[in-house]
Amino acid sequence: MVNRVVQHEGLDRVFASLADATRRAVLIRLGEGPATVGELAAPAGITLTGMKKHVQVLEDAGLVITEKVGRARQCRLAPAPLDDAMSWISFYQRLWARRLDGLDAYFTLQNAGEQKSEPTKRGKGDDA
Fold first, then answer.
1. Which domain CATH number covers 22?
2. What string of DSSP letters covers 72-125?
3. Looking at the 3D structure of the chain, how many domains does it have?
C-alpha cells in the first residue's frame, strides 16, 4: 500500500511553491519564454541571490528547469507538475460539483414536499 504522504509529496511541493506571489510571477514570466535569473530578478526588485532562492524552490518542485549557459543560469518552464496539480484540482472540483448537485436536488425535493403538505389559506369572505 502506497503511503499517501509520499504519494502527494510532489504535489505538496508544487502548491507550496505556488503560495508565493514572487514565484507565481516567475512562472508567468517563464510562460513567455526562457529567461536568466538576472532577467527574472530585475522586475521583481530583488537581489540575484534572493531570486536564486525562489528559482531553487520552483526547481525543487519540478516547475522550472535551469541550465548554466556561459556565466548565466537560464530558466525555463516545466509544465508537467502544473498538469498534475490541475488534474488533482479537477478531480476535487468534479467531486464537489456532484455533491453540491445532490444537495441541491435534496433541498428541491424537500421544498416541493413542504409546499404540497401546507394547507391553502382562505381569506375572509371566501365561499366554500
1. 1.10.10.10
2. EEEEEE--HHHHHHHHHHHHHHHHHHHHHHHHHHHHHHHHHHHHHHSPPP--TT
3. 1
pLDDT in tens, 83-127: 777 887 788 888 888 888 888 888 888 888 777 776 655 556 555
Residue 89 lies in a domain: no
Q: Which domain holds residue 31?
A: 4-78
Which of 28-32, 74-78, 105-109 bottoms out in mean pLDDT, i.e. has the lowest?
Answer: 105-109
pTM of the model: 0.65
Give the β-pairing of 64-69 and 72-77: antiparallel
